[in-house]
Design brief:
This protein has ten helices and ten strands. The protein is α/β, with parallel strands linked by helices. It starts with a strand and ends with a helix.
Length: 231
Amino acid sequence: MLDVSDIHVRYGQAVAVSAVSLSVPAGGWVAVIGANGAGKSSLLRAIMGLVRSSGRVALNGNDLSKLDPWERHRHGIGLVHEGRQLFGQLTVEENLRAGGYSCAPDDLKRGLDRAFAMFPRLAERRRQQASTLSGGEQQMLALARALMAQPRLLLIDEISWGLMPLLVRQVFQRLKELHAAGLAILQVEQNAREVLHYASCAHVMAAGQIVMSGKASEIANDDRVLESYIG
């Protein structure tokens, strides 16, 4: 489904991502792990078109490399941002509507119905400002917003950030259900133990490059990964 080839990202003279290539098959779940500053988030932003980059990004054979982020969104890519990046002064429902800005009115209504069925807590708080939600509720909203346009591929950046262990398990269980329904996932995550339990394949990034790739179960049991990222 997704083919990323020779991606480079620079911030001035600093190299954030160097010659990274990876793929996500239809219905696959691919994890990218690594330490802070490894370039993981910059890689996702490059795939979404949120930072200047070189290289090729293709979805189902269509080259998206020259497209703006909103055009990539229309091709079927959703993004759950690091730190949630909600519109704090807007209500829960207004945030969801923002996520479905490209949808026709009937599809937007169906998207809202799906979001509130998936996360009943959000339905209870649909008129509440996003900034007043708990951390777990904000993460639910960030995920629901990214799903409004029914993407075929979901990019996820540090979804467990700031969550208690119980909420982390709940969020991953929801992702498991979405994946079982056919959603492809490319997930950047510092909680390596959790994401490697669910993903089928994994890449380890360091200093802007992929330094190790393989089945998630094998990566999870590799002594070098255990020592550096899992413990």
